Amino acid sequence: MAAKLKKGDKVVVLTGKDKGKTGEISLVDPKSGKAVVDGLNISVRHVRQSQNNQGGRQPKAMPIDLSNLAFVDANGKATRVGFRMTDEGKKVRFAKSTGDVIDA
After folding, report:
1. Which candidate, 57, 72, 66, 58, places its Cα nearest to that of 16?
2. What is the value of pTM for the model shown?
């Protein structure tokens, strides 16, 4: 399946403890169908001390299922993402609510 959400996209969380919050995708794992959003779904991880890491309890952004994320369009509203072909024959993503092309 083609990637409807990509790294760098601004998204809003639809369900869960961070419902309604927005952020930017920093990592997408298409195999597991999850994405890491900066500053959202924070969990505390206990990290062992090493030469380049102090260790202790450190906050870490955990993956969120892609089905629980929605793309934020130019108006700031959540929208679904679709694909269409341009006149030049290039496949692009577009916002279904407004019809605007996301990546030209």
Report:
1. 66
2. 0.82
